[in-house]
Amino acid sequence: MHLEQVLVKPLLTEKSSIETENTNRYVFKVLKKANKYQIKDAVETMFDVKVVDVRTAILPGNVKRAGRHTKKTSSWKKAYVKVPDGQKIELFQGI
Questions:
Q1: Residue 36: which of 16, 52, 24 has the closest Cα?
Q2: For residues 84 and 24, is the Cβ–Cβ distance under 8 A?
């Protein structure tokens, strides 16, 4: 698995933006097979910051209903990445 494939996308929600402002912790959607060391290496190389801590959570899929048919979405993994004070990750570069 290459480091560019580990991070799928940043999660930009109200809860994650509050977490970023208060504790300098960023939230990413990552591959389900990725471990904490791979996530740390990917963030450090892609954003040129030092990573202090990585916490992960696997979220179960939801059951969706359309009429009488039900389907289940797939489960996914998110990572909380903490960077030291004074450093920040520029998610929107060039905007």
A1: 52
A2: yes
